[in-house]
Batch of 3 targets.
Target 1
Amino acid sequence: MSNENEDLGFHGIEEDVSHKSSEDDQEFDTLIGHLQDVVLEDEFQDLQDTFLSKNCEEFEDEEENKLIYTEIYNQYIDSLEGYIGRRLEELQPGFTMSKLLNLIQKRKDEVDPELFEMLASLADFGLFKETMLNYKSEKDNEMGDFPGLVVTSLASGLRPT
């Protein structure tokens, strides 16, 4: 008696599906690996840090958003997404941002949460604003409890007259 799958014409379909699946997995893994490498590059980190530092003071933790927030958000998207896109095009021929976004959307549970949050901040204004406010808060905490305090050397007042 012949195999039931062969009789119905399904012979080889399982292999095709698993082969396609492994190609998709490999493409996803390669692209996410490149993406992780790109966002960990010093140049990207400096770009993001400089942008956040330069613009975070504009943001306030209020319900109402200022018009300047939209302008800053658009600059953020252009700057970071542009950098990521250029680097991924160099690393993976045929790369498109829409392909990346589709892959991530389908398999977001497989993406590192920090990487996903950074990418989501490019597509979600609320997350972007939260990122700016968190950065501002961290920056203020680094300054200590006395922002704007000017320290003068005691030695300057102890000169002999």
Target 2
Amino acid sequence: AVVSTQSGHYGRGGRTQVAMIAARLCSRVAVARPLVQPLASIQPVFAVRSFQTTPKVMDESLEQACKFIGAGCATVGVAGSGAGIGTVFGSLVEGYARNPALKNQLFSYCVLGFALSEALGLFCLMIAFLILFAL
């Protein structure tokens, strides 16, 4: 429709056709339609699902499975306790081999280390039993 705007020539319809196109582009219907029409034609990305409830049997089995997983995670600390006790007594043997004169002092430190490592292992086991039987 518009051939050249720099030289003043507007093609077939002249200035009236340009005025009509501008009026049509700026009218409320032409401005509002691109905003309203695409929103109405957009399809939802995800399908809308109704609220579903699980049977009570499935809820109880899921809860039981979560308890077993939690108790298993809590008992990992017992393995750390065993490794700690082994390290404590290994250090006792090594220290006694280096200096037998410190036997009594090394043994008292060894008993203290054993008690702390064992206490942490028992705490982990207690948490596992609490998860399984108290919750």
Target 3
Amino acid sequence: LRPGINRASVLIPNCKDPSLKLRYKVCYARILDSKRKFLDAALRYYELSQMDSRHDIGGKRVAEEELLAALTHAVTCAILASAGPQRSRVLATLYKDERCSKLDMYPILHNIYLERVLRRPEVSKFAQTLKPHQMAVLADGSTVLERAVIEHNLLSASKL
């Protein structure tokens, strides 16, 4: 699938069909997510969530629910991304987006942004929203979520 998206990326700039461009962007974000490139996926999903729902794309309007779903995916991927300055910038952008305060996962986003130590109940609640590839077991035996929480909590504890 990766070679197909690479070939498509060469052709998309010349494409005149807005619905095809949108489909490409959605597919690319999903592929980054499935390949565990969570920071890049978060940026792509966030870009998708910022589309104007009032404009027609290929004769159809983008539903507000689809924009919120993209925003939810952006938050999820940002939380799962490895700790670092780029992740912090993405989290800040998401935290400042007023739409995020309406999401079910806002409490964990809030605590991560404020660099608070994450507790087991909020992590467990967040884990229930993850897809199987986001709960994959890594080479060291931990899951993607466990790794992200450990990195975050170590960073938070170091700032106490």
